[in-house]
């Protein structure tokens, strides 16, 4: 397997970034400059095409791909700018209009029309040329990807004799003398170079590099860890931020310090001229090996936090962290050895048999390490299950463990049957996936902790935003959660792009940036170019539109409507309609900024009308009914209404439903269509008055005039009863020896009818008791009739017959 190409990936990434950012830096360009840009893109595409005609080295492929992507983006950018210039020329031609038949134009108009025609032809040709270059560049990128995929497939499908067969070791032994001579010559070149440069002087640069190497890897790395921990304890807000920040700090220090140490050591050797020309790739490989080993040890150490369990981010027990930490250090050492051996084999140009033997040894060591780790985990889970009295473990962990054992089984069988490259790929993919997954998990946790802690209503930033911008606290919290989600998605996508990059199966970072650069040019969807720039512009326009709607609503509700003669319900109706109209206009404005015209919106609405007719009938009916309620106002906020058997006060009217507060303080939500199509009793629509009705009866011999006078006097004495309309008392009927009275009075509001009626009853009961007036119910008489002897005999006969 090839060495982990960290330096190559970094160089390719920087090249892609520089080439992508170059066209974007120019804001405006003349036609000649755009033509020159197209010429350069054409030369780059031609150079990549010619390079692909011959054999391409694995290190050159990412550079060629990045160059093709940059040329594609440059050509597409120039074509887009030239298209804008062409549109301006077309507008000028349209302004001139078509020449009139039979009429001669002025010479200056004819000259201008001819000049515009030449400009149109030149620009149209350049636009077509730029689009063709973009297509050609994309074809080259696809060709590079296909060749890379084919090479990766060949590497995985390569078959050699089994390491258990004599043929395998026979090939190794036969090539051993030649390999030993190559190694001896390689080492001899290095020793000879050192002897030449050592004579007569002390290589102080190499000694200084070695001293820096020791200081950086030892005291420097530990000191930086402690400094970061002390700073986080004193300055970072919240335990979660300190904990995740320290994990990221440990990964950064653990990765960069070995990189700096290795670079110092190698650079000291080079400055002292102790490096033989053939040793250059080996020294670069040593830096890459130290960096990746440092990343492996740092990521696993930051995840486990064996010696500092209170700073641990992941939910891992102390026993598991202690048990797994040695395996992570062995994995770091094994990664360093694997990369170094692969680089050494390339440097000395080792034979195929030697490289295959090295790969077999690397695969075997990785398999042993993976199997030992899984056995340790299984033993730990068994101990925890026994301590917890048979408690089952999580299904996710069991599935991952089963998958890892399956990888061990497949990789072991592949190694035994001779598919050594495939076996090594599987175990190294697990190792790299573990390291990458650990770093990604910690980075996502840090992003979530920082985002949700920084943008929180109770934080200093949150309070500043609430006071300065007038935002609600929930809006600040929501922004923090959304920011965390977006950033974690970006990190996850980047991690997926990096998963296969070390093995040559994917284009890694350069492919990711290349796809992002292509996406930045926009995607045509239904004739509308959708790109990150247009999406951001649309969101900004929507935000500005909603802000203007909010400002207008504040003026309307706070200044204008209070100055009108409208009541509260009328103001609510006007405010609600204005808000919906404003939001609709803001949405249309945002869609127009995306290039979606009103005619497209109308077409979309006409297409949606079919769905509305079938699936959204109820919602549409409620919406239209809400508009009718707001316009005609048969029911207003504050009215006392009865819907069916429920009675209460109208508290809110929206375009979909109406909220009615019942007597028990519960809320009845009624669809607006129910209020329009069915009978509704509105007790306060025409008149605000309420009426009470009292009915009772007295014996027939009672003085009816006296009773009537008492009722009217009590009505008059009750403060809630109105004098106009005046109270009244009527004799309703005379039946069953009693006189039935039906009495009426009015109060200010229907809501006061019930308590006033109760007060009048209380007063009447007391006054009638004092006057000796009986208002009891009509007495009922029950007569018992004895059965005749004949009937009794018949009953006895019936009983005997039944027996």
UniProtKB/TrEMBL annotation:
<feature type="transmembrane region" description="Helical">
    <location>
        <begin position="479"/>
        <end position="500"/>
    </location>
</feature>
<feature type="signal peptide">
    <location>
        <begin position="1"/>
        <end position="26"/>
    </location>
</feature>
<keyword id="KW-1003">Cell membrane</keyword>
<keyword id="KW-0812">Transmembrane</keyword>
<dbReference type="InterPro" id="IPR011066">
    <property type="entry name" value="MscS_channel_C_sf"/>
</dbReference>
<dbReference type="InterPro" id="IPR023408">
    <property type="entry name" value="MscS_beta-dom_sf"/>
</dbReference>
<dbReference type="InterPro" id="IPR022249">
    <property type="entry name" value="DUF3772"/>
</dbReference>
<feature type="transmembrane region" description="Helical">
    <location>
        <begin position="397"/>
        <end position="420"/>
    </location>
</feature>
<dbReference type="Pfam" id="PF12607">
    <property type="entry name" value="DUF3772"/>
</dbReference>
<feature type="transmembrane region" description="Helical">
    <location>
        <begin position="326"/>
        <end position="344"/>
    </location>
</feature>
<feature type="domain" description="Mechanosensitive ion channel MscS C-terminal">
    <location>
        <begin position="693"/>
        <end position="775"/>
    </location>
</feature>
<dbReference type="InterPro" id="IPR052702">
    <property type="entry name" value="MscS-like_channel"/>
</dbReference>
<dbReference type="Pfam" id="PF21082">
    <property type="entry name" value="MS_channel_3rd"/>
</dbReference>
<feature type="transmembrane region" description="Helical">
    <location>
        <begin position="204"/>
        <end position="225"/>
    </location>
</feature>
<keyword id="KW-1133">Transmembrane helix</keyword>
<feature type="transmembrane region" description="Helical">
    <location>
        <begin position="602"/>
        <end position="630"/>
    </location>
</feature>
<feature type="transmembrane region" description="Helical">
    <location>
        <begin position="286"/>
        <end position="305"/>
    </location>
</feature>
<feature type="transmembrane region" description="Helical">
    <location>
        <begin position="535"/>
        <end position="556"/>
    </location>
</feature>
<dbReference type="InterPro" id="IPR049278">
    <property type="entry name" value="MS_channel_C"/>
</dbReference>
<keyword id="KW-0472">Membrane</keyword>
<feature type="domain" description="Mechanosensitive ion channel MscS">
    <location>
        <begin position="619"/>
        <end position="682"/>
    </location>
</feature>
<keyword id="KW-0732">Signal</keyword>
<feature type="transmembrane region" description="Helical">
    <location>
        <begin position="246"/>
        <end position="266"/>
    </location>
</feature>
<feature type="transmembrane region" description="Helical">
    <location>
        <begin position="356"/>
        <end position="377"/>
    </location>
</feature>
<comment type="similarity">
    <text>Belongs to the MscS (TC 1.A.23) family.</text>
</comment>
<protein>
    <submittedName>
        <fullName>Mechanosensitive ion channel family protein</fullName>
    </submittedName>
</protein>
<feature type="transmembrane region" description="Helical">
    <location>
        <begin position="577"/>
        <end position="596"/>
    </location>
</feature>
<dbReference type="InterPro" id="IPR006685">
    <property type="entry name" value="MscS_channel_2nd"/>
</dbReference>
<dbReference type="InterPro" id="IPR010920">
    <property type="entry name" value="LSM_dom_sf"/>
</dbReference>
<dbReference type="Pfam" id="PF00924">
    <property type="entry name" value="MS_channel_2nd"/>
</dbReference>
<feature type="transmembrane region" description="Helical">
    <location>
        <begin position="426"/>
        <end position="447"/>
    </location>
</feature>
<feature type="domain" description="DUF3772">
    <location>
        <begin position="128"/>
        <end position="187"/>
    </location>
</feature>
<dbReference type="InterPro" id="IPR011014">
    <property type="entry name" value="MscS_channel_TM-2"/>
</dbReference>
């Amino acid at each position: 397997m090839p060495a982990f190409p960290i330096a190559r990936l970094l160089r390719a990434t920087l090249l892609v970034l520089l080439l992508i950012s170059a066209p974007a830096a120019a804001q405006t360009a003349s036609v000649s400059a755009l033509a020159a840009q197209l010429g350069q893109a054409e030369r780059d595409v031609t150079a990549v095409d010619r390079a692909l005609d011959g054999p391409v080295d694995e290190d050159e492929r990412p550079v060629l791909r990045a160059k093709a992507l940059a040329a594609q983006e440059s050509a597409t950018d120039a074509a887009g700018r030239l298209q804008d210039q062409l549109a301006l020329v077309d507008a000028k031609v349209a302004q001139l209009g078509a020449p009139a038949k039979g009429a001669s134009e002025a010479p200056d108009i004819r000259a201008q029309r001819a000049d515009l025609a030449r400009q149109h032809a030149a620009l149209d040709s350049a636009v077509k040329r730029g689009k063709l270059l973009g297509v050609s560049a994309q074809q080259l990128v696809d060709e590079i990807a296909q060749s890379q995929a084919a090479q990766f497939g060949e590497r995985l499908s390569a078959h050699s004799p089994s390491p258990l067969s004599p043929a395998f070791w026979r090939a190794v032994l036969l090539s051993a003398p030649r390999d030993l001579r190559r190694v001896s010559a390689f080492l001899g070149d290095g020793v000879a170079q050192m002897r030449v440069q050592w004579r007569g002087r002390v290589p102080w640069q190499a000694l200084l590099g070695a001293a820096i190497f020791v200081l950086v890897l030892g005291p420097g790395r530990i000191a930086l860890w402690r400094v970061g921990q002390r700073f986080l304890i004193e300055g970072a807000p919240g335990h979660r931020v300190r904990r995740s920040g320290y994990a990221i700090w440990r990964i950064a220090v653990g990765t960069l310090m070995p990189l700096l140490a290795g670079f110092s050591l190698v650079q000291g050797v080079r400055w002292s001229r102790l490096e033989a020309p053939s040793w250059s790739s080996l020294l670069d490989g040593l830096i890459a090996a130290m960096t990746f080993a440092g990343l492996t040890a740092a990521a696993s150490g930051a995840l486990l936090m064996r010696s500092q369990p209170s700073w641990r981010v992941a939910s891992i027990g102390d026993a598991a962290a202690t048990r797994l930490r040695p395996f992570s250090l062995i994995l770091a050492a094994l990664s360093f050895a694997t990369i170094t051996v692969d680089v050494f084999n390339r440097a000395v140009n080792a034979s195929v048999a030697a490289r295959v033997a090295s790969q077999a040894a690397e695969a075997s060591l990785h398999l042993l390490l993976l199997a030992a780790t899984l056995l340790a985990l299984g033993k730990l889970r068994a101990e925890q299950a026994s301590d917890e009295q048979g408690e089952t473990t999580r299904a996710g962990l069991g599935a991952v463990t089963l998958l890892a054992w399956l990888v061990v089984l497949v990789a072991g069988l592949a190694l035994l049957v001779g598919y050594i490259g495939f076996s090594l790929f599987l175990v190294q993919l697990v190792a790299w996936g573990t390291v990458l997954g650990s770093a990604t998990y910690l980075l996502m946790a840090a992003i979530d902790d920082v985002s949700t802690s920084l943008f929180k209503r109770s934080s200093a930033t949150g309070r500043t935003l609430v006071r300065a911008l007038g935002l609600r606290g929930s809006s600040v919290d929501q922004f923090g959660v959304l920011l965390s989600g977006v950033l974690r998605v970006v990190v996850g996508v980047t991690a997926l792009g990096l998963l296969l990059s070390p093995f040559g199966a994917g284009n890694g970072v350069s492919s990711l940036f290349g796809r992002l650069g292509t996406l930045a040019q926009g995607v045509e969807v239904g004739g509308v170019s959708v790109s990150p720039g247009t999406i951001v512009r649309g969101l900004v326009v929507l935000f500005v539109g909603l802000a203007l709607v909010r400002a207008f609503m504040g003026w309307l509700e706070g200044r204008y409507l209070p100055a009108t003669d409208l009541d509260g319900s009328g103001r609510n109706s006007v405010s609600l309609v204005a808000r919906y109209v404003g939001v609709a206009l803001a949405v249309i404005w945002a869609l127009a900024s995306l290039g979606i015209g009103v005619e497209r919106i109308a077409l979309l609405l006409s297409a949606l009308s079919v769905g509305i007719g079938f699936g959204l009938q109820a919602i549409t009916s409620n919406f239209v009914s809400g508009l009718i309620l707001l316009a005609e106002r048969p029911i207003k906020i504050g009215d006392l209404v009865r819907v069916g058997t429920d009675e209460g006060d109208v508290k809110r009217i929206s375009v979909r439903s109406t909220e009615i507060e019942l007597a028990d303080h519960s809320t009845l939500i009624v669809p607006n269509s129910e209020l329009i199509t069915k009978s509704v009793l509105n007790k306060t629509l025409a008149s605000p008055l309420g009426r009470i009705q009292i009915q009772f009866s007295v014996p027939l011999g009672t003085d009816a005039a006296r009773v009537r006078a008492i009722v009217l006097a009590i009505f008059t004495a009750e403060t809630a009863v109105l004098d106009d309309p005046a109270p009244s008392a009527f004799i309703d009927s005379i039946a069953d020896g009693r006189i039935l009275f039906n009495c009426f009075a009015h109060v200010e509001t229907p809501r006061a009818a019930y308590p006033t009626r109760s007060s009048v009853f209380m007063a009447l009961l007391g006054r009638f008791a004092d006057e000796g007036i009986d208002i009891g119910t009509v007495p009922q008489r029950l007569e018992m009739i004895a059965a005749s002897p004949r009937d009794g005999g018949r009953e006895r006969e019936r009983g005997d017959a039944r027996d």
